[in-house]
């Protein structure tokens, strides 16, 4: 499929009708642990409901279903109220992560007035903020405007892969490595911090190729990043990846592979971490048999940046079947998920 065809196909999967949602309230606010100040601590996470990512007007990334959380009619007044709700949920947490189903720095999604209101509200209450953005909004004028508020900010960019071919034909990111590198340099020049997101196992490539791709992307992005978050695929609704998965043409990555990447990349200058969404679940990173200890160790070692326990546990596992499956899949043209197909067929009514 040509890249334009792919983009249009993915665009066609975005549902036209949005479920009713309260425009004055964030999609969700919760607390979790992260290490944005270099140690694990309670962090408030807030997803603001906005009009969503600018890329949705043309297409979407092949794994992105965040459009499910957007609303077309959000105006500044709604976002002021959402900021107030976040403010009231802070408690004693000193660190905040903001997600928007798009880019916090896109002035059409979060206007300068809302952005300034947000930073003014956070002043004195929090010591570190993470916001996410596509590279096109990482502009000098916007960064200078944020700097006036004197709050340390880490900007997160979804590089996903340092391989432009994968970015274009597998992820449909609408971006390039060069755009990431330019944005990363500007972030550093302006005195901000950078978190780089990498996507582990986009569609159409084998798990072995995906491991190699993440490891190569870590090496390229490490010199610019304060930390690198490896996000294993989590299958979201109304996405290309979900369509492939339902047809048995995509299998989410294995947790053993994620552990392997973390162990192999843990000696880098900046922290490599992973807090998998949907870990152990059918739609998330999982092995054929759920290994809670492995998942817990992945999260614990990411938070503490100490991978010795994970290494020890990983070395104790019998990986012969895992290695066999990965080698076999790597030789196949289509990434067929035979295990899931067999399970689905055996559950289907044709046998009854
Ligand atoms: S850039 Fe981010 S929000 Fe926009 S479509 Fe891609 S993953 Fe989704």
Automatic annotation (TrEMBL):
List GO molecular-function terms, semicolon-separated: 4 iron, 4 sulfur cluster binding; catalytic activity; metal ion binding
Cofactor entry = [4Fe-4S] cluster
Q: Has keyword Protein transport?
A: no
Pfam family for this entry, one: Radical_SAM
GO CC terms, sorted: cytoplasm
Which CDD domains does its entry note? Radical_SAM (cd01335)
- InterPro entries associated with the record: ELP3, Elp3/MiaA/NifB-like_rSAM, RaSEA, rSAM, rSAM_sf
User: What are the Radical SAM core domain coordinates in residue numbering?
Assistant: 39-269
One GO term (biological process) = tRNA wobble base 5-methoxycarbonylmethyl-2-thiouridinylation
Q: Which UniProt keywords apply?
A: 4Fe-4S, Iron, Iron-sulfur, Metal-binding, S-adenosyl-L-methionine
Output the superkingdom of the source species: Archaea
| Protein name in UniProt | Radical SAM protein
């Amino acid at each position: 499929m040509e890249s334009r065809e792919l983009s249009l196909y993915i665009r066609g999967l975005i549902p036209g009708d949005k479920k009713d949602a309260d425009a004055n309230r964030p999609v969700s606010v919760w607390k979790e642990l992260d290490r944005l100040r270099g140690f694990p601590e309670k962090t408030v996470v807030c997803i603001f409901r906005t009009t969503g990512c600018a890329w949705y007007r043309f297409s979407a990334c092949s794994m992105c279903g965040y459009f499910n959380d957007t609303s077309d009619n959000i105006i500044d007044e709604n976002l002021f109220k959402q900021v107030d709700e976040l403010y009231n949920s802070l408690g004693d947490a000193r660190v905040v992560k903001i997600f928007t189903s798009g880019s916090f720095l896109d002035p059409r999604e979060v206007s300068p007035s809302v952005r300034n209101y947000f930073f003014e509200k956070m002043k004195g209450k929090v010591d570190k903020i993470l916001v996410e953005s596509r590279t096109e909004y990482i502009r000098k004028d916007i960064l200078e405007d944020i700097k006036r508020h004197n709050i340390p900010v880490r900007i997160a960019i979804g590089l996903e892969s340092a391989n432009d071919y994968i970015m274009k034909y597998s992820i449909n990111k609408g971006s390039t490595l060069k755009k990431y590198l330019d944005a990363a340099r500007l972030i550093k020049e302006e005195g901000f911090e950078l978190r780089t997101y990498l996507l582990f196992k986009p569609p159409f490539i084998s798990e072995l190729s995906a491991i190699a791709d993440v490891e190569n992307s870590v090496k390229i992005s490490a010199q610019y990043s304060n930390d690198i978050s490896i996000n294993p695929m989590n299958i979201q609704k109304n996405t290309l990846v979900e369509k492939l998965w339902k047809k048995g043409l995509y299998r989410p990555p294995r947790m053993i592979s994620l552990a392997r990447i973390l162990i192999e990349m843990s000696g880098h200058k900046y922290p490599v971490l992973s807090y998998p969404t949907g870990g152990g679940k059918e739609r998330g990173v999982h092995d054929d048999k759920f290994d809670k200890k492995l998942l817990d160790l992945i999260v614990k070692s990411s938070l503490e940046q100490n991978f010795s326990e994970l290494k020890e546990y990983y070395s104790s596992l019998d990986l012969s079947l895992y290695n066999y499956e990965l080698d076999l899949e790597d030789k196949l043209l289509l990434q067929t998920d035979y295990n899931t197909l067999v399970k689905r067929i055996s559950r289907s009514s044709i046998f009854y």
